[in-house]
Amino acid sequence: MRAALLLSLVLQVSTSGFATAQSPATDLTGTWVVNLAKSNFGTLPPPTVDSFTVTRAGATYQFDATTDVGGQGKQHIMYKWPVGAGEATNDMANGATVHTTVKLKGDTMVVASEIKMQSQTVALQTGRVFRSPDGKSLTREVEIQPVAGPSTDPIRLLFVYDKR
Question: Which one of 73, 77, 109, 125 has the lowest number of neighbouring Cβ atoms within 10 Å?
Fold first, then answer.
C-alpha cells in the first residue's frame, strides 16, 4: 500500500519544474501520453493511464494530469510550477506536501523532491527530465527513496512520453 501511495505521488509530481531561459528543448507545453513500450516500471505494475497537459501563463506552468497507478483508480490532478529553476511546494489532495527544487543543466531539468505526509518525510525523489531533439518525446528518469516502511529500497522508474 505504501509503495502504491509513493508511486501515485511520483506520477503526480515528478513532471515538476522547469526551464529558466525558455529554450525549445525545455518547453514542456503540450499534451504528453506515456509510451508503455518505451517506459520501464521495474517490478511495479504499469499505469493504466498516465497523461498530462502543460500550459503556461507568464512565469507559471500548470499541469493537468490524469493517472491510474497501482490499482488506486483514475485520478485527476492539477498543480502549478514556476517556469525556471527554483523551488515550489504543492499540497496534494491526498494530504501529501511535495517540496521540489529544480535546476537546469543544459537542456536537462534536474529535479529533487521531498514528499511529506502529516509533516513527516516519507520519501525523497530525484530525477532528470529532458525532451528528445525533435521535441516529440519527453523522458523522466526517477528514483524514489522511501525513508520508512517495510522497505527502504530505492525504486527506479523510467517514463517516456509521446507528444500529442
Answer: 73
